[in-house]
Amino acid sequence: MGEWGFLSSLLDAVQEHSPMVGRFWLVVMLLFRILVLATVGSDVFEDEQEEFVCNTQQPGCKPVCYDDAFPISHYRFLVFHVVVLSAPAALFVIFAVHQAAKPGHGGAPSQRARRLQPFYVGSVVVRIAAELGFLLGQALLYGFRVQPLFVCHRRPCPHHVDCFVSRPTEKTVFIHFYFVVGLVSALLSLAELAHLLRKGPPPRAGCCHRPQERGAAPGQPAGAAEEPCCPPPRGDLTV
């Protein structure tokens, strides 16, 4: 669980820069992906290769058939999925910390948020592309059902060999659950991207929110006392 704890701490640091919908994505990621995969997934798939039984004693036949049935182990595929999804957020946190440590790059919170927002939007776009890519890969590699029987006819097997998968129903339920979580995660990421694009960048520091009217000083023309004002703020990186 140590490596999962390190990954969770990196993701938790992202919430400082995330809108509310991004924090919902973070909850789904931590609870329904990392926690479930660390506690349940390893037990479901730990005997995947050991309990893959084929009705032949031909040397080399079982490993070849297992490789044909599962080009990538389910568990390793799901772990790699989580790591790739976490990479954009982790890189954004590293970049934000690096920018904050630069001399003269502190400034007001609104200024920092304005500088970081394009990079955060980019990380969300990469996350969406990775999410959709892995969902498509899961559907193409494994489908949505783990078959209890796999018929193998690759060399060095002497003939068509029947191979049997352990606990196919439990693995099918887990795959369905993980795919639904992936769909929910993708929808939350799309909603977060739409929210960020609709809100736009935070206002510049020092801008007033509305014109301040006051009487003109002696010797000044009328209207010269109005203070310049920036456009109304369209939102911040955080909510």
Outline the structure in words.
It is a single chain. The protein has 239 residues and is mainly alpha-helical. It contains six helices and three strands, in the order ααβαααββα. A three-stranded antiparallel β-sheet has the order 1-3-2, covered by helices on one side. α2 (20-45) packs antiparallel against α6 (168-199), α4 (74-101) runs antiparallel to α5 and α5 (109-142) runs antiparallel to α6 (168-199). The longest helix has 34 residues, at 109-142.
Listing every helix as H and every strand as E from the N terminus to the C terminus, the arrangement reads HHEHHHEEH
| Oligomeric category | single chain
Largest sheet: 3 strands, antiparallel
Helix content: 55-70%
Count of separate DSSP helical elements: 6
> In total, how many beta strands?
3
Strand content: under 5%
Arrangement of strands in the largest sheet: 1-3-2
Would you tell me the overall average pLDDT?
78
Cα(first) to Cα(last) distance is 32 Å
Describe this protein with a few key phrases.
3 strands, mainly alpha, three-stranded antiparallel β-sheet, 239 residues, elongated, 59% helix
Can you summarize this structure?
By secondary structure, the protein is mainly alpha-helical. The chain contains 6 helices and 3 strands, in the order H-H-E-H-H-H-E-E-H.
Describe how the helices and strands are arranged.
Blueprint: H1 2-14, H2 20-45, E1 53-54, H3 61-69, H4 74-101, H5 109-142, E2 149-152, E3 161-164, H6 168-199
Antiparallel strand pairs: 1-3, 2-3
